[in-house]
Design a protein that fits this description.
Elements (H helix, E strand, L loop, with lengths): L19 H5 L1 E6 L6 E8 L5 E6 L4 E5 L19 H6 L1
Antiparallel strand pairs: 1-2, 2-3, 3-4
Organism: Limulus polyphemus
Pfam family, one: PH_14
InterPro entries: PLC-beta_PH
Length: 91
């Protein structure tokens, strides 16, 4: 038999460091799936990096668990959502 030692392998992860600029927040446009109108919001991340918060102009706050984010886009890939045919009829 091989002389391998059994033991516990410990992986040490560095603690998450959320930059102060993300904790303080910044201005963004939030696009809803049901509307082609953007809403200005302030987006922040909690100091432990678990939640994304956004506050609208009426001071209403919503949040999202960061682990549930599937996709983010910036620059030329961050386009205004397309207007569906049902929304065109309403306009």
């Amino acid at each position: 038999m091989a002389s391998a030692k059994s033991g516990v392998h410990v992986v040490q992860l560095k603690p998450i460091c959320v930059p102060k600029s993300l904790q303080d927040g910044n201005k963004f446009i939030k696009w809803d799936d049901d509307s082609s109108v953007g809403t200005p919001v302030t987006v922040r991340v909690d100091k432990k990096g678990f939640f994304l918060f956004w506050t609208d102009q009426n001071k209403e706050t919503e949040f999202l668990e960061i682990s549930s984010i599937r996709d983010t886009r910036t620059g030329k890939y961050a386009r205004v959502p397309r207007v569906s045919l049902s929304q065109v009829n309403l306009l």
